Amino acid sequence: MAARDWSKLYQQYKGKWVALQQDQVTVIAAAGSLAKAMNQAKRLGFDNPITTKVPGELKLLVG
After folding, report:
1. Residue 18 needs a FRET pair 20 to 30 A away by CA distance; which of 25, 33, 35, 63 works?
2. How far apart are the two ends of the chain, measured CA to CA in Å?
3. Reduced to 3 states, what is the DSSP secondary structure of residue 36?
4. pLDDT over 70, % of the chain
């Protein structure tokens, strides 16, 4: 699986749930809750989108 650049996704949707097409970069729907994002995606004809919560802020982790 190739890496995806979600930096633009982060800038536009930080703190929200997003539903993505199978290409993992095209946003179908975005909302403050998973249920709302899924409902929006289903209304648009996407029954099984990829979903993720975009973090509200990025934190550096060193381990």
Report:
1. 63
2. 24
3. helix
4. 98
Q: Is the dihedral of CA 35, 41, 43, 47 positive or negative?
A: negative
DSSP characters over 38-60: HHHHHHTT-SS-EEEEPPSS---
CB 59 within 8 A of CB 38: no
**Amino acid found at 54:** V
15, two tokens: 């703190």
DSSP H or E segment with residue 31: strand 27-31
Q: What is the pLDDT of residues 13-40, one digit of tens each?
A: 999 999 999 999 999 999 999 999 999 9
Burial class (CB in 10 A: 0-12, 13-18, 19+), 42: middle
